Amino acid sequence: MSSTRDIDALIDMMARLPGLGPRSARRAVLHLIRKRDLKLTPLADLMQTVAATARECARCGNVGAAEICDICLSPKRGNGQICVVEDVADLWAMERAGVFKGRYHVLGGTLSALDQVGPEQLRIPRLVARIEEEEIGEVILALAATVDGQTTAHYIADQVEDRVRLTSLAQGVPIGGELDYLDEGTITAALNARKAL
Amino acid sequence: MSSTRDIDALIDMMARLPGLGPRSARRAVLHLIRKRDLKLTPLADLMQTVAATARECARCGNVGAAEICDICLSPKRGNGQICVVEDVADLWAMERAGVFKGRYHVLGGTLSALDQVGPEQLRIPRLVARIEEEEIGEVILALAATVDGQTTAHYIADQVEDRVRLTSLAQGVPIGGELDYLDEGTITAALNARKAL
Ligand SMILES: [Zn+2]
Ligand SMILES: [Zn+2]
Fold this sequence. Notes:
Two copies of one chain form a homodimer.
Chain A: H1 5-15, H2 22-34, H3 36-53, E1 55-56, E2 63-64, H4 70-73, E3 81-85, H5 88-97, E4 103-106, H6 124-133, E5 138-141, H7 147-160, E6 165-168, H8 184-192
Parallel strand pairs in A: 3-4, 3-5, 5-6
Antiparallel strand pairs in A: 1-2
Helix pairs in contact in A: 1-2, 2-3
The structure holds zinc ion (2 copies).
Residues 57, 59-60, 62, 68-69, 71-72 of chain B line the site of one zinc ion.
């Protein structure tokens, strides 16, 4: 149907977003068309704005609307700590927890021989430079407990351990997590790091 | 963070779409920002186009880009059959099956005393008028087997059964559907409508 070509194309693009599929894309597009003035037009406008303004922070790799992001610009966040994360989504998760008061360094992935991702692709040289420039006293590694995540953690440790205190997030049972749903590695780590009540 | 306000607002709008939530909205927006030129800008443009052109077919309630939709305009689809569906999503599902050759009538909901949805809100008078105007010989009710769906089916039957042949989709076990996952009503209906092999 030629006159619904744009609608079909829109469903198609939405369906290819992570977390969506054809069915949820169809539902979302129908919903948007029904609430055209209230939802579809504002959403399109906002996407245009973000497409025009969003950029990676030149210092930490966070996503924002300026050359240097708010966290890097805030003097309050300059407490001598850098938390190293794989991805902007991880940075956002840390910020939602609201407990970390320092700055971030977003690697943009993990080292992977298979995918030919080396230290340069991951901004690791940039991290080493920041330790000097920003007088960093502690680097907190908040990387996934996967093979690639841990390979990356060890590589970073080799690069920075003589310049800075190096820590990583504790492993253990998530709050509200039922043991039954956890993998053996997590349970083992939680048991080994057990604390006296 | 003021400079990420637009990004936060975009995540917020996406998260409120049916089928998405905060987590998938965050992932989708990060993905779009990373592929700004390839994905975010084209998606925003397409939404603008659809917002400017999409409209409900004045005859059947389908969604398209013209006053009257392609299906209503196609002489091939004027075979004297109208399939009554609750929603445009149901019309699309029927079209994907590709088996129905007639036209549609989209109610836009089901009768509901609770939500104060009456026959006028559902284009039922329009359906009655179309039976005369388009020389319809059969109305196929493709409504959900819910209380509201069946109330609506009975109401439509009362209005049109003396003018037209009235049928409804067969109920039974979906192809590939395991009995274990089906509700008792479906199993009962499938058993009652059993056929000799
Ligand atoms: Zn930054
Ligand atoms: Zn139509």
